[in-house]
């Protein structure tokens, strides 16, 4: 049988929110969780592994391809060196 102190401790450490909402609360606080809930509750949201659009990445590569190495461009953008080479060729073929 659990003692009163154990039960109270369990309740005090219990998260206020369900699953992902608790994660967002821990990261961003109540106001953001409320906004996320109001706008997206019941929805499935996919977060791509790449933060930036391909168009944006192409523009950054074009701006920097004469100043940075392919390795540096890959590190900067999160793409592989092979992908950077492919994008540079795409830029040059325009």
Q: Give the beta-strand count.
A: 0
Q: Look at the structure and give the mean pLDDT.
A: 89
Portion in strands: under 5%
How many domains is the backbone divided into?
A: 2
- Radius of gyration, in Å, reads 23 Å
Query: How many H/I helices?
Result: 6
* Euclidean distance between termini CA atoms: 74 Å
Largest sheet: none
- Helix and strand content put the structural class at mainly alpha
Task: Walk me through this protein's architecture.
By secondary structure, this protein is mostly helical. The protein folds into 2 domains: 37 residues, no CATH class; 40 residues. The protein has 6 helices and no strands. The N and C termini lie far apart (74 Å). InterPro entries: Homeodomain-like_sf.
In a few lines, what is going on in this structure?
This protein is mostly helical and 94 residues long. Helix content is 67%, strand content 0%.
Task: Give the topology.
Layout: H1 4-13, H2 19-28, H3 30-40, H4 54-64, H5 70-77, H6 81-93
Helix pairs in contact: 2-3, 5-6
């Amino acid at each position: 049988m659990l003692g009163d102190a154990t039960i109270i401790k369990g309740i005090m450490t219990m998260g206020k929110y369900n699953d992902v909402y608790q994660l967002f609360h821990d990261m961003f606080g109540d106001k953001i969780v409320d906004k996320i809930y109001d706008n997206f509750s019941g929805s499935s949201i996919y977060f791509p592994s790449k933060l930036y659009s391909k168009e944006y990445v192409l523009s950054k590569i074009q701006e920097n391809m004469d100043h940075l190495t392919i390795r540096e461009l890959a590190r900067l953008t999160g793409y592989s060196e092979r992908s950077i080479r492919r994008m540079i060729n795409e830029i040059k073929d325009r």
